[in-house]
Amino acid sequence: MKLWKRLTGIVVSLALLSGCWDSKEIENMAYVTALGFDYVDGKYKAYAQILNFSNIAKNEGAEIGKVVPAWIGQGEGTTVSDAVNSLYATSQNRIFWGHVRTIVCSENLLKQGTKIQDVYSAVNRYREIRYNILIYGTKEPIAKIFALKSILNFSPIESILSTPDQVYKQFSIIKPIFSYKAIADSSEGTGSCILPSLSIDTGTWLEDEKEKSLLKMNGAYLLKYRKYLGWLTDEDLKGARWLQKGIDRVPINVPTDEPKANMVILNPRNDVSPIIVNGKVQYNIKVSVEAFLNELLEPLSDHNLKKETSEAIVAEIQHTFEKGLRIKSDVLNLEDSLFRSNPRKWNEIHQGKEDIFVLTKDSLHKIEVYVHIIHGGKYKAKV
C-alpha cells in the first residue's frame, strides 16, 4: 500500500512537471523595448532595441553608471511583418514583445503617407504589444538613436526615448504622444497630428572632457489625413503648447529678444471661439496662465511684468500659426472649435471635402492672454 502511494505521488509530480518543460527562464529571453521602421527602395526596414537586464534592474550589486551595451536587431522585408519576422532567424533566444515602449519612424517612411498606418496596424495587431506606446519621427539613423544611453550612462529606458515625462514636467515644449493618438489625429478630426521628432545632441553635455551624445526633441512632424505636411522646429512650435492640455512648467523670457525677466508659466487654460466676420470664419483665442518670477534682469512693476509676459505668449502663438500656414497645417487646432460648435458651417466652407485647407493669415482675429503672478520665487516681493 505504501509503495502504491509513493508511485502515485511520483506520477502526479511528473505530470505537473511536464507542464513547465516548454517554459523559458526570463533571463534567457530577449526583451524588445523599442521598435524602429524605415522605408527604402520599396522595402521596410525594422529595428529592434534589446536591453540587458543588468542595465535596467536596480540590483544591490549593480554598478551605477556602468556602460552596458544595447543590442540592436535589423531586419528587412516587403511588408512590416516580413521585416520584423526576419529578426527571429538570428536572435538566438526567444524574443518577447510585451515590453515595447516606443516606436520610431524615419522621416522617409513618414513622407510615404499611409506607410505609418501600415506600421501601426501591423504592430498593434500583435497580442503581446500594448496600446500605450510612444511614437516619434526622426531624421537620424534609427540604429544610432537606439544605441544612445541616458545621462550617467543609465539605460535608454531612462531617456526621453521611453520616459519623456521626466523632462516634459520641467520643460514643457513639445508634448509626447502615444501611437494610438497620433494615428487618430492624422486620420480624422480637424487639426493636425504633431509627431515629436528626435535628434542627437552632442554639444550640451560632457563626460569629463569628452562630448556626450544625448537625445533631444528638436521639433515635430505635422501629419494630416495620413499625409506628410512638413516639419517644424521646436522654436516654431512654442505657440502650440499654450493651446494644449497637460502643460506642467514653461520657462519663458520676457521680452523674448532682449529679456528683462524670466518667468515660469504654470497651468495654462485656453478657449478658442469661432466668429463669423463678413461671411468668413475667424478665431479668437483667450489664454489665462499662472506665473512666478524666476529671474529679474531689470526693474519692472507688477503691471509691466504681466504686460511683457502676455505679449511674449501672444507673439509665440502668432508665430506658430504663421509657420503652420506655410505648410498648410492647422497647428493650433483652431478648426476643431468650429467643427464642434457649428458643424454645418464647417462642412460649408470645406465643400464636403475634409482635406481642404481653408485657413488664411486673416483667420486669427484676436489673441488675449491674462497673466496672474503668484509669487516672486524665494523673495517675498514679486518684483
Automatic annotation (TrEMBL):
Transmembrane intervals: none
Subcellular location(s) of the protein: Membrane
Membrane topology of this protein: Lipid-anchor
Span of domain Spore germination GerAC-like C-terminal: 218-377
Matching InterPro entries: GerAC_N, Spore_GerAC-like, Spore_GerAC-like_C, Spore_GerAC_C_sf
PROSITE patterns, sorted: PROKAR_LIPOPROTEIN
Domain named Spore germination protein N-terminal: residues: 22-199
Coiled coil: none
Keywords, ordered alphabetically: Germination, Lipoprotein, Membrane, Palmitate, Signal
Entry-linked Pfam families: Spore_GerAC, Spore_GerAC_N
NCBIfam families reported for this sequence: spore_ger_x_C (TIGR02887)
Family from the record: Belongs to the GerABKC lipoprotein family.
Name of the protein this chain belongs to: Germination protein, Ger(X)C family
Source species taxonomy: Bacteria, Bacillati, Bacillota, Bacilli, Bacillales
